[in-house]
């Protein structure tokens, strides 16, 4: 940590906040709007034989959560590398 | 040999043994009881052997598995730590009964991992302590915050533990015919061997082994069914068509004259039971029985669609109004609860680095996702089986899975109107747990697959019990005894105390479970709200807001817990109702109160010291695989970075 300048630390943290906020907004929209409040309306569309609202709540949202966390881990780990943060424990 | 090879070989041998048992069943007619014994003996044997191989008395190994668990394996361990008897046995059944409304569980128990990934996991790893109260103690200073953490951790974990032990007892007693009380203790042997001998290290590797068993056994029956019906072995793709078929059938049943007749008979029975209760003059036990009978009759009298002209059955109907509010509130509570349960959070202390902690959350959710993604399909296949293979058959010619499972008492077929034909309303479901357990027979699979499913259910219950037991014992021995009562205690003394506590906690849990208190199942659902309202705000604010201080955190945890507990008890027993919210979603009030209290009280009181603020700043930037604070055991840096 000592290796990072004040400016680097600020930009590192800003990137983290932005990424976190983006992921949370997607999480909110997928869970509470698409699979919740709008699900009834979405059910009129059919996807792979599923009513779309049901599909999003039962399958789609779950897949999106997995992708979101994978993206988070990938981008944050890349960010660490970019800032030259090297952890002792890396295998 | 690399870990991947070891567990690959293990998976293959497990499959091989299963196939051998299957061959023995076909060729020599191996009796079902024997198959039950073999599966239970074999899986418990594996867990005990892993426990012995990985035994340790090094504290870093014992508390956090030497912080050397690679992300993928920590993901598997977290998966089985997380997925309990409720996920494995009960969830698909609940979905098949509740339809859309039940999806709150599927989303809540997966979406919570996103909160965990972005708000907590990597930061807790960077902080690098042994327990969650450790973090509260260091971040908020002093023993008060730690003590509240200890109480909340024990309260959530213990109720949850009893439910797992009950699950173990049920499985063991049902499949090998031991009495429930004996079954509970047989199961505990498997748990205690690992946790006592090797703490977190043994528990981790056992949980990986348990994950493999539970996921294989969950997928096999439903994949087979999907292949049987659609020639595509991917149930998640095929069950959409089933939903449509089921929906058509639900509407047919709603309009059918004989179904209506049967429902009317049930409605009359419910009315009579209610009238008897109203008339009074019955003692409490009888009144309870009448109430249960009335509930059951009302359930049977409910048509699968709201009215004759409905085009969509209840199963696919998205709730509206208060129903929608409860759906969203429950999803929210399960999510924050997931991110606040101490036995899951501690798992992220065990990875070698922050990077691995991040990757590990992703793997965790992926492994959990494999099961949760399949559960709604399971539910639809179960519905289909009942609609297609039961409704309309002659009472004299029930399908074989019905006759096989009826003695278990989970469901009953009652010819209510006496016409000799099974109506939908004649199928009385007492516990939806039959869905997962009976699926192999529904699919016409040999008993060996039932044995496999049973081993999976046992693995799910035992792995969660392992993690919970360790959390409770560490809360007592590490956080209470070592940190508060006797900071001078020697290493040997502390580990001895932990081991004694593990055995004691397990025995107490088993003893409580033998009473079979019905409220336990409810309490488990409450644990999520309690964990969400107590830990989540204090942990998130502790990491994300430097200004949060001791007074704020303590007040916030207490306020969050108090509001949640007040609403739980009030709505469950005293008719308190805010916006018609269900008891199980109580944290929807407690959590915002917790956050607000931390914020307001912190601002009104003095800012935390510079060193604490530096600590908060330091957890934001990963720097090394080591703990930032002084090692909680006062030794050098943790040795197990690799």
Describe, in plain words, how this protein is organized in 3D.
The complex is a heterodimer of chains A (91) and B (642). Chain A is mainly α and 91 residues long. Chain A has one domain (6-82). Chain A has three helices and two strands; from the N terminus they run H-H-E-E-H. In chain A, a hairpin with a 2-residue loop joins strand 1 (46-47) and strand 2 (50-51). In chain A, helix 1 runs antiparallel to helix 3. Chain B is mainly α and 642 residues long. Chain B has helices at 3-28, 32-53, 59-64, 71-82, 85-98, 103-127, 132-140, 143-176, 180-230, 235-255, 257-279, 284-301, 322-338, 342-345, 354-372, 375-389, 400-405, 434-442, 447-485, 491-513, 519-544, 550-573, 587-604, 610-618; strands spanning 411-413, 427-429. Chain B has a two-stranded antiparallel ribbon. Chain B starts with a helix and ends in a 24-residue tail after the last helix. Mean pLDDT of chain B is 86; it is low at 624-642. The chains are: A mainly alpha (91), B mainly alpha (642). Chains A and B meet through helix 1, strand 2 and helix 3 of A and helix 6, helix 10, helix 13 and helix 15 of B.
Short structural description:
The complex is a heterodimer of chains A (91) and B (642). Chain A has 91 residues and is mostly helical.
Task: Pick out its properties.
heterodimer, A: 91 residues, mainly alpha, two-stranded antiparallel sheet, 3 helices, 2 strands, 4% strand, elongated, B: 642 residues, two-stranded antiparallel ribbon, globular, disordered C terminus
């Amino acid at each position: 940590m000592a290796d990072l300048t004040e400016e680097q630390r600020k930009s590192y943290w800003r990137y983290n906040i932005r990424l976190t906020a983006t992921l949370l907004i997607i999480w909110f929209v997928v869970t509470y709007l698409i699979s919740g409040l709008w699900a009834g309306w979405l059910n009129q569309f059919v996807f792979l034989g599923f009513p779309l609202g049901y599909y999003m709540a039962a399958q789609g949202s779950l897949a999106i959560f997995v992708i979101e966390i994978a993206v988070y881990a990938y981008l944050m780990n890349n960010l660490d590398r970019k800032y030259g943060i090297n952890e002792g424990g890396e295998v | 040999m690399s870990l991947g090879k070891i567990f690959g070989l293990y998976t293959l041998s497990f499959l091989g043994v299963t196939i051998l048992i299957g061959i023995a069943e076909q060729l020599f007619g191996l009796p079902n009881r024997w198959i039950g014994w073999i599966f239970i003996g074999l899986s418990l044997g594996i867990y005990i052997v892993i426990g012995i191989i990985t035994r340790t008395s090094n504290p870093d190994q014992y508390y956090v598995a030497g912080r050397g668990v690679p992300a993928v394996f920590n993901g598997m361990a977290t998966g089985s730590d997380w997925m309990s008897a409720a996920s494995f046995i009960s969830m698909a059944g609940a979905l098949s009964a509740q339809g859309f409304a039940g999806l709150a569980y599927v989303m809540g128990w997966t979406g919570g991992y996103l909160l965990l990934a972005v708000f907590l996991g990597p930061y807790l790893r960077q902080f690098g302590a042994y327990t969650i109260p450790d973090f509260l103690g260091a971040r908020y200073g002093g023993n008060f915050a730690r003590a509240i953490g200890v109480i909340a951790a024990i309260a959530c974990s213990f109720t949850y533990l009893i439910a797992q032990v009950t699950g173990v007892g049920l499985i063991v007693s049902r499949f090998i015919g031991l009495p429930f009380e004996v079954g509970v203790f047989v199961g505990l042997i498997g748990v205690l061997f690992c946790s006592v001998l090797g703490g977190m290290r043994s528990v981790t590797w056992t949980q990986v082994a348990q994950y493999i068993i539970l996921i294989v056994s969950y997928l096999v029956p439903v994949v087979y069914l999907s292949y049987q019906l659609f020639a595509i072995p991917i149930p998640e793709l095929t069950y959409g068509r089933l939903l449509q078929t089921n929906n058509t059938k639900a509407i047919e049943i709603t309009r059918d004259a004989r179904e209506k007749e049967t429902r009317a008979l049930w409605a009359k029975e419910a009315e009579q039971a209610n009238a008897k209760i109203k008339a009074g003059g019955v003692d409490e036990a009888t009144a309870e029985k009448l109430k249960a009978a009335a509930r059951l009759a009302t359930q049977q009298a409910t048509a699968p669609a709201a009215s004759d002209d409905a085009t969509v059955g209840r199963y696919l109907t998205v709730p509206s109004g208060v129903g929608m509010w409860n759906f969203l509130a429950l999803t929210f509570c399960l999510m924050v609860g997931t991110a606040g349960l101490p036995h899951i959070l501690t798992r992220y202390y065990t990875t070698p680095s922050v990077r691995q902690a991040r990757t590990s959350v992703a793997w965790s959710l992926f492994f959990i996702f494999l099961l949760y993604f399949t559960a709604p399909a399971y539910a639809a296949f179960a519905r289909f089986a009942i609609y297609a293979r039961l409704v309309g058959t002659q009472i004299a010619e029930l399908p074989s899975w019905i006759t096989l499972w009826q003695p278990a008492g989970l469901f009953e077929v009652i010819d209510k109107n006496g016409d000799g034909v099974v109506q939908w309303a004649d199928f009385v479901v007492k516990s939806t747990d039959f869905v997962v357990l009976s699926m192999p027979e529904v699919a016409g699979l040999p008993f060996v697959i039932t044995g496999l499913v049973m081993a999976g259910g046992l693995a799910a219950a035992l792995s969660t019990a392992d993690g919970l037991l360790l959390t409770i014992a560490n809360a007592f021995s590490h956080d209470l005894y070592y940190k508060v009562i006797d900071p001078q205690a020697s290493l040997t003394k502390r580990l001895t105390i932990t081991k004694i506590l593990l055995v004691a906690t397990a025995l107490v849990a088993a003893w409580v479970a033998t009473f079979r208190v019905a409220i336990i199942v409810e309490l488990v659902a409450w644990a999520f709200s309690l964990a969400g309202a107590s830990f989540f705000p204090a942990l998130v604010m502790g990491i994300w807001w430097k200004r949060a201080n001791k007074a704020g955190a303590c007040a916030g945890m207490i306020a969050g817990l108090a509001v949640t507990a007040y609403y739980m008890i009030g709505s469950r027993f005293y008719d308190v109702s805010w916006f018609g919210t269900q008891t199980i979603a109580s944290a929807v009030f407690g959590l915002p109160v917790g956050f607000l209290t931390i914020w307001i009280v912190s601002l009104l009181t003095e800012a935390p010291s510079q060193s604490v603020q530096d600590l908060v700043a330091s957890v934001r930037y990963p720097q090394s695989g080591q703990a930032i604070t002084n090692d909680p055991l006062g030794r050098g840096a943790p040795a197990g970075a690799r």
